[in-house]
Task: structure prediction
Amino acid sequence: MRLNIIIGGGAGQGINKVSEIISNTITRHGYFVFNYRDYPSLIRGGHNFNILSISDEKIESYESEIDFLVALDDKSVNIHLKELKKEGIIISYNEFENEGRDLNIALAGALIKILGIPIKELNEEIEREFPNNSKKMESAQKGYNSKESLLQFEKIENKVWVASGSKAIAKGAINSGLDLYFAYPMTPATNAMHEIAKDQLKNNLMVFQAENEIAVVNMSLGASFAGAKVLIGTSGGGFDLMTEALSFQGISEIPLTVYLASRPGPGTGAPTYSAQSDLDVALRGGHGEFPRIVVAPANPLEAIEKTNEALYLSEKFKTLSIILSDKNLAESEFSSSLKENKPLQIKITRDLSGEKIVRTSSYELDKLKNSTDSAIDIERNVRARIEKYKKIKKFVERKFEMLKIHGNKKSKNLIIGWGSTTGAIKDAIKNLDCKFLQVIYVKPISKKIKKEMQNAKNIILVEQNVTGQLGRLLREKIGISIPEKNRILKYDGRPFASDKLEKEIRRRLK
Result:
């Protein structure tokens, strides 16, 4: 069973709140949800909508055709009517205009009644969000009474956990014993800063908003040099500003971890939409040659775990770690069974034993840590940095999950993807003879990928960018090129809908 619901209206009408209330009510009933937010760069007005997908089994994407349209204005009907299935239903604001600011709550009540979920469960969720608010309860009841139950969502004995990627990054950082989080607000990285800041006193850490991204990265290097466990967050444009300091990290070997939540570029691009176009800059941003780690989680559970790993590796090897995300992962809400919610947690410490005075600078240094332009010293330092990368790769291959295989593991049809597209790919191949190789560590990259690609008869690349950046990396590192006809690339700022992706994959399996 699967349903897709669009909740649409203008910015400021409470779309996210009603979507959250419906989502929480449904998950407490034992069902899984995926909730994607779509909005322009406007504070008021415009057209915002959430796509809420519901299923009795785990899902990590939405579909292109909708079963219900919850419209808080006429614009939502005009825009999304073509996506509504023939038997689909519109729940319109027209019926509840007298509810004023509680219009969204009345619409939530109407939808819950149609789904056949008792009003008691919705009321419990409203009470949690708005304690002792009788007006909202009344509005929910009016909405509920206005409809007939068309479905019967029987309660499932299944405890479901819901989180966004931003909440997961925050949890992974807090689990790691983070001391400081530096950031300058930039969509879609900002929500992680808010999540970490919520309980900073309780978690014995500090969040500091600097004046710009250059200040962010330089402050973080100073704090890390002083012994603090540090994480910084930004998106593509801010990351560009940080790259000079990232090179300073490479030569100074001060531990640093960056959360890079990418969005479409170049320039300001489409700042509130999603893309996987910053893989290249994550792999190569900064001048000179120095080691780094780039890890790309696909969902909140992986984000918790991989944030912890990135911070650990940065401290262990005194290197740069980058956690690569995007708007789809950062702002969407994913659900999973509580049984799955057991990410590994590594304790992170910094060993300063035996070190009395620590010196570093942005210059090449001799053995006494003095600036040098000696050819012998330069060659030794360059070689040491490259050798460090080899040690990192060997360690990660031994200790951490660098890739995952989904689907039919014996299939000769191989799908390759990474990051937030993973959910849509997994949902798309449920009824297909396909094996899906999800790349998690992009640098270092697993040597197992070569064997999987060599054993496949048909390889299909799925990415949300225009040039196939992972495909190019695989050609460079593995030596196998994926034909252009077998590349499914999306670059309009919107994530893959799993049903449309399934059709694209089927065409390439013929």
Remarks:
- Residues 375 and 466 are 42 Å apart (CA to CA).
- The chain has 17 helices and 19 strands.
- The longest helix spans residues 375-399.
